[in-house]
Input
Amino acid sequence: EFFDGKTGKYVDFPVTDVLQMMGRAGRPQFDETGVACIFVHEPKKNFYRKFLHEPFPVESSLHEQLHEHVNAEIATDSLHNTRDVIEYLTWTYYFRRLVMNPAYYGLEDPSPAGIEKHLSTLIDSVLTDLQKFGCV
Output
């Protein structure tokens, strides 16, 4: 924890900051190993164990740049309709993470029908925007 002057209270370090500090333990130019000790209250031990011993999930950001990707695929004549775009997305890392971590991507119904509806809504929005701006 550290004292956050803006909020006027003690707050937890972000896990990414803790991992960064641990990565700098030791002196790389002199030591082959480094030691990092984390002291936490009992209720937080399992939380930190999880992030220290399990891989950190990496999420996709394709949905944030989907307009550019879909536009490029349409321009190269690879995609022709909504069904093609949905099929294209099923081969991406975005789709794999959507299935594994649906809440992160705003997916409320993780069933196959819910995923199909989510992708259709996303693609319809992207295609509407591309048409509105004269890209397709």
In short: The chain has a mean pLDDT of 89. The two ends are 52 Å apart (CA to CA).
